[in-house]
Amino acid sequence: MQTLADRLTTLREEHEWTKTYVAKQLGLKNLGTYANWEYGTREPDNEMLIKIASLYDVSTDYLLGRTDKRHYYDLTENDKKNIAKELEEMISDLKKADAFAYSKEATDIDRETHELLIASLENTLKIAKIEAKKRFTPKKYRN
User: Fold this and answer.
1) pTM of the shown model
2) Beta carbons within 10 angstroms of residue 105's beta carbon
3) Quick one: which of 65, 58, 68, 114 has its CA closest to 91?
4) pLDDT digit string (tens) for 62-94?
5) Which tens digit of pLDDT belongs to each residue from 95-138?
6) Residue pair 60/49 in contact by the 8 Å Cβ criterion
């Protein structure tokens, strides 16, 4: 499992930011303070942890290693299974209704178009689930 220091380093590098830049964004007067957090020799206090989470757009639980989900609204394995099941049902319904035909002669669409349509439906379901979590998750559970 990654430590706080590992996660800070990873997040900073993903954003292609320097330690100096991050320290300035957090309002630190001494670059060494932030560097020590990445080296694992010191840890930020709770107030600073919240600022760091906000800067990197992740949860404090993620920073502390309590979860591997960066955001409270990330899809869980259960969410992914439910989306796959819902997608299967949608495809089955579309096949029953001959919705995969594109002309009056009911000529089947080509394989590539079929796969793109399915991928589009899957992405739409994922986005809808994430947006629902963002909108309807009570604030007390948004760690």
Assistant:
1) 0.60
2) 6
3) 114
4) 899 888 888 777 788 898 999 999 998 888 877
5) 776 665 544 454 566 778 878 888 999 999 988 998 888 888 78
6) yes
Query: What residues does 108 pair with on adjacent strands?
Result: 101
Chain length of the chain? 143
User: On the CB side of 56, how many CA atoms lie within 13 Å of its CA?
Assistant: 26
Q: Which tokens sit at 89?
A: 């049902």
Q: How far, in Å, CA of 51 to CA of 66, rounded?
A: 18
> What are the structure tokens assigned to 8, written together?
């800070």
What is the spatial distance between Cα 138 and Cα 143, in angstroms, rounded to a whole number?
A: 10
Alpha carbons 75 and 86: distance in angstroms, whole number: 15
Token representation of residue 20: 């100096």
pLDDT tops 80 at residue 29: yes
Contact 75, 130 (CB under 8 A): yes
